Amino acid sequence: MQTFGQFIRARRESLRKTDPTYSVRQVAKRMGIQPSYLSKVERGEVSPPSEETTRKLAHELGVDSDMLLAMAGKVSSDLQDVIRKRPVLFGELIRELKEMPDHAVLRLVREVRDGEW
Amino acid sequence: MIELKHDELSFSFPEVHPDAKLSLNLQRTLRIPDDGNDYPLPPGLGAFPLRHVDDFASRLPELWKKHGGVMLPMYQSEALWVNLNGRYPFAVKVATGKINALTGESWADGLHRDPQDYMVTPDQPWLDGYCVEKGTIRQFVAMPLGGGYTVEEQITGEAEHGGLQIVVYPMKAQAYRELYVREGETVFSVALDMDSMALSAPAQSAPDMGLAPGGRMKQEIFDDPHDFDVWDTRASARCFVHITNSLAWRAVTGEEPPTTPLTSREYQEAGLPWFDYYGGDREALEGAKKLADLKTVKETGEEKGEQPLPENEPVEDPVVITLGGEGEGRPVREGRF
Question: What is the CATH number of the domain that holds A18?
């Protein structure tokens, strides 16, 4: 299984093949972090970054922020808040869903409803 | 399908292509002066909160329930811009009060090439207002529906719909593979997030808001560089974005609305930059005469003997940073000021 750093590097290098602005230097610049720090993250020499920086990285690399946070061993703070508000309900719900196949879980994803206009 | 994630509308078409995803948020921003001068791009001040209409259905008008979609809070005379993010090409049509923001025509299903009634992403990273002339828009400014200020009321004579309507059409997968994957087009990535700022709130009136034409801004709406048949018109997703005033937002959702943004003058006095966008050799659309002929918020206010824009002094010599050319997005300053 790919580590967090390996995944980041693979994704960035993949984007860089068609867009040179995905160099370490330019990605770091857009995110407002030091290129050397991003490089260390990619090499696994430092722990995965904070939630805020991981979110920026997910946005920059066009990947889902919840997935990237999970790879970094974190749970998004907004999800933590959701669970804290109704811990029993959401605890039960998540346990119920854990063995469910993806397509069944996806049926629960909420779409924005379009009406008549 | 459309999902609401972290105040962003997330459009996805897995049946067309796994990459066919577009996210859209509505950015809070400075209202530029409505004084006849052309202004550069103001910054993004963070996304407006978006909520499902269905979550608050019992406290909302019947018509909103019928429309479905989402809602957001705005103060009277506050401005917004539409922020588009995604690598996959989409045709995006935006209307206010069911009047197309590029052509001034009434809402019609489908896409139209002449005059072009849609924008093309990722080339077009944002839309700040109504396309009134080639290279010039008039800023989207929120006004109470029924006051006679909105584009909808000026064109149709009715205050019926309000809000903002958005529909997106993905590029056909085959065209995407041929045009983008093989040739490796430049992509845009716009990272936007900013804390709100504490300022006093202007007066409130009716709960239902629409958008009206404000000050002039330099912004090109690019001509569709593709053949018209690249768009998959069988696959589309649309969303009605209702706009409620901030007091009603608090009553309906129980949440505090964002505080009002800085005025243009306060922003300027803080020495902060404005932006220009370099679109390369892309062709820009001509503006719509129908939209150019409309009265601005200031002009309507003068006719009615009202002063809807409390802060409308010109901004002199703004510091302008040019964006674009290397896939550079429209930055948002971080932190408070």
Answer: 1.10.260.40
User: Is the confidence at residue A20, as pLDDT, over 60?
Assistant: yes
The answer to whether B77 touches B141, Cβ cutoff 8 Å, is yes
Residue A25: inside a domain: yes
Domain count, chain A: 1
Instruction: Give the amino acid at B197.
Output: M
User: Which residue of A lies nearest to B181 if distances are taken between CA atoms?
Assistant: A18
Nearest to B323 by CA among B226, B179, B186: B186
User: Does the structure show a pLDDT above 60 at B256?
Assistant: yes
Task: Look over chain B and give the mean of its residue pLDDT values, rounded to a whole number.
Answer: 87
Beta strand ranges found along B207-314 (DSSP E): 208-218, 237-245, 274-277
Cβ distance B53 to A113 less than 8 Å, yes or no, reads: yes
Which of A82-86, B212-216, B263-267, B302-306 shows the lowest mean pLDDT across its residues?
B263-267
Buried b (16+ CB within 10 A) or exposed e, B278-310: ebeeeebbebbebbeebbbbbebbeeeeeebbe
Asked if A19 lies within 8 A of B327 by C-beta distance, the reply is: yes
Residue A82 lies in a domain: no
Q: Is the ipTM of this complex over 0.85?
A: no
CB contact under 8 A, A115 and B6: no
Please, are residues B239 and B166 in contact by the beta-carbon 8 Å criterion? yes
Asked whether residue A112 is domain-assigned, the answer is: no
- For the stretch B217-252, what's the b/e string if a residue is b when 16 or more beta carbons lie within 10 angstroms of its beta carbon? bbbbbbebeeeeebbbeebbbbbbbbbbbbbbbeeb
Please give, rounded to a whole number of angstroms, the shortest distance from the CA of B332 to a CA of chain A.
Answer: 11
pLDDT in tens, B157-176: 999 999 999 999 999 999 99
Q: Is residue A81 part of a domain?
A: no
